[in-house]
Amino acid sequence: MGVAGRWNRRTVLRRSALLLGGAAVGSAATVESTWVADRRLPLAGGPASATLGNGHQDVGRGGVQVLWGVRTDEPLVALTFDDGPRPQWTPMVLDTLAEHRVPATFFLVGERARRHAPLVRGRMDGHEVGNHSWAHRDLARMDAATVYDDLRRSHDAIAAATGSPPRLLRPPWGHLGGAVLYASARLDYRLVLWTLQMVESEFPHDPAGHARRIVADVRPGTIVLGHDVGDDRRLVALRGLPDMIDGLRARGYTFVTVSDLLRRAAGGGAAR
């Protein structure tokens, strides 16, 4: 091969190196510009961030557990009710549960717990309370410090109204973000979502039909989401609650609070 061939090869190699070097510089510049752009967004310490600042992270026991349900061979089910308390339906739910001797977990809104404390004061024996934020705003859109302040305020109001400080958190709409995780860890909460949701809109004016649907879909370790606040459509589920309870008991299910569900599954209920 002549000089021209060698020159062409060297030229190609040199140009390739220049291109690769330029690509590397360009890639680094892209990463740098992305980082700078991200710093202008509410990411560092904002809704997406599960850390705060550069100092020691004050995160309670150092971790947070997120639950949708548990894996167990025992026929256990946890009923949960969100958004209360309010005079609208909370007393009806508590009366039904008391009549059927069923424990449940109530995720309370702090502002409502403070305003309607007489509805729940003295009525939570055998039940469990969790935190559902101060005013049912989307915690996943708030920065870490704001989420913590919101949940701390709600925590204190729920403890004052019920006599029981919450140890569980269910964020409104189940929306999680890094800031929610961070605040939960600081407060030593478990984050509780759900396995199965009551779907009142699918059974208009048919409480028995809705109850049958829930009974059929429950599996051991299920956490069921319901509401004791809302519009009239939700009365389908609440009016069918006795049928739901009877149907699940006929299938051999035992009703437990969320924390009891976790204890029993971890303590020998063949958690797997």
Automatic annotation (TrEMBL):
Residues 1-28 form the signal peptide. It holds the Pfam family Polysacc_deac_1. Residues 75-256 form the NodB homology domain. Keywords: Signal. InterPro entries: Glyco_hydro/deAcase_b/a-brl (IPR011330), NODB_dom (IPR002509), Polysacc_deacetylase_ArnD (IPR050248). It comes from the Bacteria. PANTHER family: 4-DEOXY-4-FORMAMIDO-L-ARABINOSE-PHOSPHOUNDECAPRENOL DEFORMYLASE ARND-RELATED, GLYCOSYL TRANSFERASE-RELATED. This is Peptidoglycan/xylan/chitin deacetylase (PgdA/CDA1 family).
